[in-house]
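User: Sequence recovery, please. Input:
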């Protein structure tokens, strides 16, 4: 009887989810040396060694593996390292984050973390676009390659050369989240069969993937706390002055705080993606700010002025008022930022299904995101897409 009760308890505990460590930024970035402990929604009894589950698995090559390309596709059939096992409690947070096996766990955890977020926004599970051929995504945590890519049935991570030091992309949440963004987009819009030459499929893919990385990054409590403490809650004022771009250690934030408009970009896909990413970040900041004003945490006059035209002393007055409110009720700031993040994230996710990948243009994508958002959020998105010259002013 006693045994039976323990079993029932164990099985109920196993359904709670599974613990992992994730570095929100690569550990060589100052301020991000320590990983965050996260709970992934997947129950412990659904993860096997590797880690692996019904939806994905890690295959860690024993020898240097060349990247998949046109000639090669999963499954990886070479010699593999021993699959990583969980601890006795079946969580995966017992392995030294500086050890080689940790690369496999970290890559897996990042993919799952991002999927948890975007499946929540979509309200249903994501089905891989390649599931006719491969039921599961293969994750290669370390390939002998100075790059990372996601493709038909796989996500593989090489290394980056930072000042002569090789850093595995498996520890880079930003890179992994971006690649998962590509997989999510293709799984929702489906694979293009004949891309129109004046279409923006590739630029939008890059923009969407960068937004996935940015918004997923804002799901780490430690990241939101750092951002708000560093700016003392003044995202709007700092953003307008481009302070993030100068000083932010987070790549996602630096990228998203650009001031590019469509008239100033080239046809190179990453360059052409920048105004879209900027519009998304500006919208999150604008929604956040509107919420702060509604809660008496920021001066309402700020909603109507062009901040770039503020005199220095006015600017300081506004900034001090927000900083004072932040020191008294930081919780409101955090709630406002997470609500803004989720309003925009959900609109982005639900817009995907309405897009035709063959004829997709950035203005169509922007309009689809606006259409997927609620009233006031839609209005702010529209304003920001118009300022970026992605859509016309109405
Ligand atoms: Zn990309």
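Assistant: Recovered sequence (394 residues):
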């Amino acid at each position: 009887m006693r045994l039976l009760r323990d079993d029932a308890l164990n099985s109920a505990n196993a359904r709670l989810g599974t613990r992992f460590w994730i570095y929100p930024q690569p550990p060589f970035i100052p301020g991000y040396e320590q990983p965050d402990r996260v709970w992934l929604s997947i129950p412990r009894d659904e993860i096997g060694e590797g880690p692996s589950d019904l939806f994905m698995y890690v295959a860690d090559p024993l020898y240097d593996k060349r990247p998949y390309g046109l000639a090669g596709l999963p499954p990886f059939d070479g010699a593999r390292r021993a699959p990583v096992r969980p601890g006795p409690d079946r969580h995966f947070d017992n392995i030294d984050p500086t050890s080689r096996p940790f690369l496999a766990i970290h890559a897996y955890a990042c993919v799952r973390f991002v999927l948890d977020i975007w499946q929540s926004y979509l309200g249903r599970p994501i089905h891989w676009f390649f599931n006719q051929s491969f039921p599961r995504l293969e994750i290669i945590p370390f390939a002998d390659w100075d790059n990372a890519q996601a493709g038909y049935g796989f996500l593989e991570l090489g290394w980056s050369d930072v000042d002569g030091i090789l850093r595995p992309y498996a520890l880079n949440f930003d890179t992994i989240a971006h690649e998962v963004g590509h997989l999510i987009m293709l799984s929702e819009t489906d694979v293009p069969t004949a891309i129109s030459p004046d279409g923006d499929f590739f630029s939008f893919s890059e923009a969407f993937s960068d937004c996935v990385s940015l918004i997923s990054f804002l799901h780490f409590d430690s990241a939101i706390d750092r951002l708000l403490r560093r700016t003392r809650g003044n995202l709007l004022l700092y953003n307008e002055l481009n302070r993030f771009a100068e000083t932010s250690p987070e790549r996602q934030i630096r990228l998203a705080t650009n001031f590019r408009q469509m008239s100033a970009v080239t046809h190179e896909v990453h360059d052409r993606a920048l105004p879209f990413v900027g519009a998304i970040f500006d919208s999150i900041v604008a929604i956040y700010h509107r919420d702060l004003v509604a809660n008496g945490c920021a001066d309402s006059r700020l909603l109507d002025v062009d901040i770039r035209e503020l005199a220095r002393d006015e600017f300081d007055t506004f900034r001090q008022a927000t900083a004072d409110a932040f020191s008294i009720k930081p919780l409101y700031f955090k709630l406002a930022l997470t609500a803004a993040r989720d309003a925009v994230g959900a609109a982005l996710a639900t817009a995907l299904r309405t897009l035709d990948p063959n004829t997709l243009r950035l203005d169509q994508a922007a309009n689809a995101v606006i259409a997927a958002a609620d009233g006031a959020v839609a209005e702010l998105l529209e304003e920001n897409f118009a300022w970026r010259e992605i859509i016309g002013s109405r």
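Strands lie at 18-22, 36-40, 56-58, 137-140, 148-151, 154-157, 159-162, 165-168.
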